Amino acid sequence: MTTNTLFETLNPPVRLLMGPGPINAYPRVHQAISSALIGQYDPVMTGYMNQVQSLYRGVLETNNKQTMLVDGTARAGIEAVLVSILQPGDKVLIPVIGRFGHLLCEIAQRVGAVVKTIDIEWGEVCPPELVEKAIKEFQPKLLATVQGDTSTTMNQPLAEIGEICQRHGVLFYCDATASIAGNELKMDEWHLDAVSVGLQKCLGGPSGSAPISLSDQCAEVINRRKHVEAGIKAEHHTAGADIRIQSNYFDLAMVMDYWGPERLNHHTEATSMLYAARECARIYLEEGSENVIARHKQAGDAMAMGLKAMGLKLFGNQQYKMNNVVGVYIPDEVDGDKVREELLLCFGIEIGTSFGPLHGKIWRIGTMGFNARQECVLTTLAALESVLLKYKAHIQPGQAVTTAMQYYTV
Ligand SMILES: *Cc1c(COP(=O)(O)O)cnc(C)c1O
Description:
The protein is of the alpha/beta class.
């Protein structure tokens, strides 16, 4: 006999999420998610879809008509872009500055693309000269990279790379999930052809929706692969000249038709996540991009300088550090996981561990979205200092919080 249990009523603890994402969502985003559900072709719903397109043009600083949501986490946006652009045998150049650069390679390889990487030491960014040299030698169709790679906390400068891609006729895609809304991103000015992001970093929402935008040229490349699926295909749908996109769910040619005037049925838009994405963008644009980015820089600087004042060592080339996350070396005397556990259980604060070559060496502490605020920075520094003192780490007590507070005195 099987026994069924209902478990307890859902009641997750309230945590302060100060890792590299996910973070605590803005209260207004929680409200938006709990709004009433409506049908996918209700004119109110299609109206919201149009609003979301317009709002994300604002967030990504673009006029691209093809701006929409991919339903899924940020990785869904990345995969949709790569599988829709890259045909088997296409050449893609990928500067790899951290873990998420490897993810781009992995997805491109699964698609059957020919991948060439520029491997950068973790904690540094890719110089544009290396990109230009590699483009001349390799002649790729696409350059794919990551802007803020949270695995290393570095923010790849993109403007010059965009100009190089433009000059050589190479499509330019960037995963800006971790950097958007905390660091500058100018899609059109920097000649980006495709950008994908997620909500759970500086946009201040939950994971589960991936806003993307495609230049006209990029949309055309994708539409050449359009083969409308059986069952909804009509007379006027002529097949594209290029081979069909390997994924159905991530077929951006079909997703564009669902978001476009034809409203051709594809998936059912994830209504609650669209509400969340809409509110994240409204909050960002209402506060103003410059103000939001400045707030992230203030919180990020206060956190980094507080950690330094405690006597801890920061990871990576600080000139290129993302505003919204800092890597800090774990003192030799302490067990990094034990400290994280104690922060969580005694203070309700989560900070991040790290991956690959940095595993066990650094913690990553984020100040993003709703949590890019003085009280979150100060509380985290005070709590970390207490736990480190308990474990007899060789730190400077009494400095971190006052140092961080200086970033907030006017
Ligand atoms: C956090 C992060 C993601 C997140 O992807 P999910 O699929 O939402 O987990 C993607 N890209 C980068 C660069 C990130 O830092």
